[in-house]
Design goal:
Rossmann fold, 5 helices, alpha/beta, seven-stranded mixed β-sheet
Length: about 180
């Protein structure tokens, strides 16, 4: 796994071999995601929220491209420690890494973010609640996006706030405004 572009571009991240419930976003899908984001939202100076932080790769990429405030929510202690170790090694500033259930966090959150990314476990049976909660609670800034990573079996086109989707094989990104 690597950071694709920006000031940390080219840095390799070596995730633990026994990652619990974690499926890192592939480089091809991540590259496609960031090509879309760079053309639609101002990453430089952005306030971001990474739900189901996993390896932290999305947040490292956001920081590398100039995001100035990163909140990462991950409930697994091993992965949380991995994220913190990488943030320290890369020297990423202005991060808030929370060990917490994502839904617990969302139910108490009242801030707005320019970019919200959620890459939940594909087997999560409450995945459809994520866009509902985020849109209802108005957590997306006026010029921002919420991106939900999911499989083709989920369809969000009729959900409030849905904007568009992009398909990268078995990975789909649905964008909400």
């Amino acid at each position: 796994m690597r950071i694709i572009a920006g000031k940390y571009g080219g840095r390799k991240i070596h995730p633990p071999t026994n990652m619990p419930y974690t499926r890192p976003t592939t480089d091809i899908a991540k590259e496609g995601l960031f090509n879309i984001l760079q053309n639609r939202v101002q990453i430089e100076g952005a306030k971001t929220l990474d739900l189901f932080g996993g390896t932290g790769c999305i947040s490292y990429e956001l920081a590398s491209r100039g995001a100035v405030s990163l909140t990462i929510v991950e409930k697994d202690g091993q992965m949380l420690d991995f994220i913190k170790k990488n943030i320290e090694a890369i020297k990423i500033e202005n991060t808030n890494v929370l060990r917490m259930d994502v839904f617990q966090f969302l139910n108490t959150c009242n801030e707005q973010y320019d970019i919200i990314f959620a890459g939940p476990p594909y087997a999560l049976n409450t995945i459809d609640d994520l866009p509902r909660i985020i849109v209802e609670r108005k957590l997306i800034s006026a010029a921002g996006y919420f991106i939900l990573e999911h499989t083709p079996r989920n369809d969000y086109e009729l959900f409030p706030g849905f904007s568009f989707k992009r398909n990268y094989g078995t990975t789909i990104f649905s964008f909400f405004e």
